[in-house]
Amino acid sequence: MGLDFTGLGSVFDFAKEAMNKIWPPDADPNAKMLAQLELQKMVEARENLVIDAQKSIIVSEMNQGDSYTKRARPTIVYSGLAFIFAVHVAFPIIVFFTGKPMPEISLPAEFWWAWTGVCGIWVVGRSMEKKGSTGKVIDTIMGKKS
User: Fold this and answer.
1) What is the DSSP letter of 5?
2) How far is CA 82 from CA 79, 87, 94, 123, 134, in A?
3) Structure pTM?
4) Does residue 1 form part of some domain?
5) Greater confidence, 73 or 84?
């Protein structure tokens, strides 16, 4: 079993499987091979378009003028993770080693609603943007000016 570093093996496999399902077994092997090659070219062209779209998104993010806007949503995500770590990991460890009783400390429900809402919307928006989706909703989620 070899490793497919180029990603072309999956394209070729897909084209071959598609041809085996579409064309009857008694079809002309030459015509089937030509159709398979054409399908491979089409799938490969689509993959290149997706990669180019992802690349252009990353480049445009890095060329953005406001450096904090690039980090604002991740800041909310990482701050929330820091609060969760502090309350559920750091404080209990400190209490364990000091021998003092653990105070009643927890993150409020409002924190969980807000944090999971921001994270969920940001992750969905970012995923859609990476796939090449555009529109007012995606631009609003990602903080782009239309």
Assistant:
1) S
2) 5, 9, 16, 18, 32
3) 0.45
4) no
5) 84
